[in-house]
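Look at one record.

>
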Amino acid sequence: MTTSFVYATARTPFGRFGGALAGSRPDDLAATALSGVLAKAPGLDPAEIDDVVWGCANQAGEDNRNVGRMAVLLAGVPTSVPATTVNRLCGSSLDALIQASRAVETGDAGIVVAGGVESMTRAPWVLPKPEKAYPAANLTAASTTLGWRLVNSRMPAEWTASLGECNEHLSERFGISRERQDEFSVRSHRLAAAAWEAGFYDGLVVPVEGVDLVRDESVRPGTDLAKLAALKTSFRTLEQGGTITAGNASPLNDGASAVLVGGEAAAGRLGIAPAARIAGRAAFALDPRDFGFAPVEAARRALRRAGITWDDVAAVELNEAFAVQSLACVDAWGIDPEIVNARGGALALGHPLGASGGRLIGTLVARLAASGERWGVAAICIGVGQALAVVLENVTGTDGVSGTDGVSRTANTAGAKHTAGAENVAGAR
């Protein structure tokens, strides 16, 4: 077994539903992210890429027929480079990274590109074939943008509830108020806007040809608690105890992300030093309606496999599918909330399903490199009751140069940021 590293990341700006990227096909977005990450490895001969593993949650329209392979062909990568597409819904590109790292560690590959794409705008309506020929009744087209469609009647109703209703269940279970959710959302937008203004994302995001979009389109710098409090609840009425609105749930988005993964020997071929070691990873599953809480155990397992604890962790990138599930996870981990999504999260940046895992990795690598701190965790909840988590070890110093042994030159100060002994304090809040 060898070691796998993240060498570089790239992503497109994330567009709003029906926004600036509405005219861009998902396979073109995927090719943009792929080309963007390869451009960061000046020594790489693209023909030496052993595989491309791409994530996509939908695959019902222009992203069908193995969109990973389409990205390779559209990016002008040699046709000898193979590619596959994986689907673990919201976790698809993080799953792609996990699969890429395993291929490197087992010796099956030396250089792999992982990534993902989603165009929620261009996701088609689908019309099911009738059970019998020449039906007299009407047929209903189903939108494939988000959530369940063409549900198997054998599934229990509580398993196939809407994503929002599932998270209202979490709000009840852990006593997480709408006010806390709105405060968390305001924080996400504030931090995302500040990060863009400070230039944090400039080196992570690559432009989409023919599109005048340089920043994530869903960020609302002017949002505040008063504006969010005025929004109507989306899944339950106020009388029913509804807490989730369009303001404290992630938006629908379009975008793509890519991560360049390789072993230690790949540095010479790529012409760049590794940025982070992939130190631990885990998948976890529970009841489908509790999917938002699944990252809690996924992260704990990934930390154990990395041989560290929360006391060692300095940075967390948790996908903000909903404010309520993010708060439930942070409460259960008992960590300092300030180390979570310090450059904004999906509530502001957006959540194009298949691309979000790669975005988490790119942001986490950049945060660790900027701070010089050693350990970080990326985690994401996944519809139908799953989650993934990955632990990264920073292998760059504060000057951005790797040590000769691949270990950060900066002492770890994460322990002081841990809220000791707090296992799950959601109810107390």
Q: What stands out?
A: The chain is about 30% helix and 20% strand.
